[in-house]
């Protein structure tokens, strides 16, 4: 993809995905603004936004009940392709099982899938409870959900994020993983979760899983892009075992969207500079399109700050970005969208 002008479409703080008409008018709006890709959420709160046989067979929940009788993913694909937008479904929850629900319905049915911290407790970070992404059964479950989408829908790609493939580095202390580590090293892992060998060993398991996912996606549809939106390196490695420079080196990802979520331009610029230093020498920069935060909670980016960030991206030979998230474009009488249309996105 030579230039990416993308936006995430959430089912949180947004009603777009709740009706076909809203989806159609949103896709018209994005195309008119100059976007060329949309990243709709399809896996959130332990529910899919498409009818999933895997979810039905494993947990008896075919689709988010709010969308029963519909297929929001299929509706997005039809309406987005109608106006020339690429569709890359976003598996937002990744290996998370629930938020402040003690594991929720997934771990209630499959307690053996729980990730554990060094005290043997359910792994919780920032309120999110985690499945054990180092476990092959858990990996197979998520892989099958993703492959369902690749097989059954005319998608242009699939996307993981800071929860996929990922595991908070406080995790990995479940019995199965401890036994696996002991068999390899003849000792138990370090109780310090930032121990370098312990970090790398777990991160390598996630890298191997992504490698498998990449090859299985490409075996079904070679042109489907594998896109990942991790946190910022090396924070994402130390905190979530996401070794994305290795993913790029191994060529097991097509697009990387580091979440450069900063609320002022100087902080954003620093992260872009770091990205360019890390990836321009090895020819990887054309695969990198950062995530820019435009709305979360009470925060809203200004038009000037957004245009400044995009201008700096282009100056540094970064040829695109994804904005988080759609509803930020619609506030203040579509102010951000108008600014984009009158500048970088409208003159193509």
Rg, alpha carbons: 20 Å
User: Cα distance, first to last residue?
Assistant: 15 Å
Overall pLDDT metric: 97
Q: How many domain modules?
A: 1
Which ranges are low-confidence, i.e. pLDDT below 50, for 5 or more consecutive residues? none
Strand content: 5-15%
Q: Tell me the overall shape.
A: globular
CATH class (first level) name: Alpha Beta
How would you classify the helix and strand content by structural class?
alpha/beta
Biggest sheet details: 5 strands, parallel
Number of helices: 12
The CATH superfamily bears the name Glycosidases
Strand count: 15
Q: H/E element string? A: EHEEEHHEEHEEHEHHEHHEHEEEHEH
How much helix is in the residues?
40-55%
Report strand order across the widest sheet: 5-2-1-15-12
List descriptors.
348 residues; alpha/beta; TIM Barrel; three-stranded antiparallel β-sheet; 15 strands
Task: Give the structure's gist in a few sentences.
With 348 residues, the chain is an alpha/beta fold. Helices cover 42% and strands 14% of the residues. It has helices at 20-33, 53-59, 72-82, 104-109, 136-152, 175-185, 196-220, 235-240, 244-249, 265-279, 303-315, 327-341; strands spanning 4-9, 37-40, 43-44, 47-48, 86-87, 96-99, 124-125, 128-130, 157-160, 225-228, 255-256, 291-293, 295-296, 299-300, 320-324.
């Amino acid at each position: 993809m030579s230039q990416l002008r993308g936006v995430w479409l959430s089912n949180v703080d947004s009603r777009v995905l709740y009706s076909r008409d809203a989806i159609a008018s949103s896709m018209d709006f994005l195309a008119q603004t100059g976007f060329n890709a949309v990243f709709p959420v399809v896996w959130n709160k332990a529910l899919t936004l498409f009818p999933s046989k895997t979810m039905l067979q494993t947990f008896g929940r075919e689709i988010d009940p709010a969308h029963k009788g519909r297929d929001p993913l299929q509706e997005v694909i039809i309406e987005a392709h109608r106006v020339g937008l690429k569709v890359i479904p976003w598996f937002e929850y990744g290996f998370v099982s629930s938020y402040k629900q003690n594991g929720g319905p997934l771990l209630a049915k499959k307690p053996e899938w729980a990730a554990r911290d060094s005290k043997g407790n359910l792994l919780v970070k920032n309120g999110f409870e985690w499945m054990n992404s180092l476990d092959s059964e858990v990996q197979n479950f998520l892989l099958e959900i993703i492959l369902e989408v690749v097989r059954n829908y005319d998608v242009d790609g699939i996307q993981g994020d800071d929860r996929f493939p990922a595991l908070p580095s406080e995790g990995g202390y479940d019995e199965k993983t401890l036994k696996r580590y002991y068999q390899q090293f003849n000792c138990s892992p370090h109780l310090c979760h930032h121990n370098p060998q312990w970090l790398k060993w777990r991160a390598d398991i996630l890298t191997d899983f992504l490698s498998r996912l990449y090859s299985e996606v490409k075996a079904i549809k070679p042109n489907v892009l594998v896109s990942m939106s991790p946190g910022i390196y090396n924070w994402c490695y130390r905190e979530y075992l996401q070794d994305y420079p290795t993913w790029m080196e191994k060529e097991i990802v097509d697009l990387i969207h580091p979440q450069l979520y900063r609320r002022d331009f100087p902080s954003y610029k620093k992260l872009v500079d770091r990205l360019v230093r890390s990836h321009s020498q090895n020819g990887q920069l054309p695969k990198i399109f950062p995530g820019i935060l435009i709305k979360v909670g009470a925060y809203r980016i200004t038009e000037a700050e957004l245009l400044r960030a995009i201008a700096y991206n282009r100056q540094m030979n970064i040829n695109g970005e994804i904005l988080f998230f759609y509803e930020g474009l619609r506030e203040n009488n579509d102010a951000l969208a108008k600014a984009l249309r009158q500048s970088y996105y409208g003159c193509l």
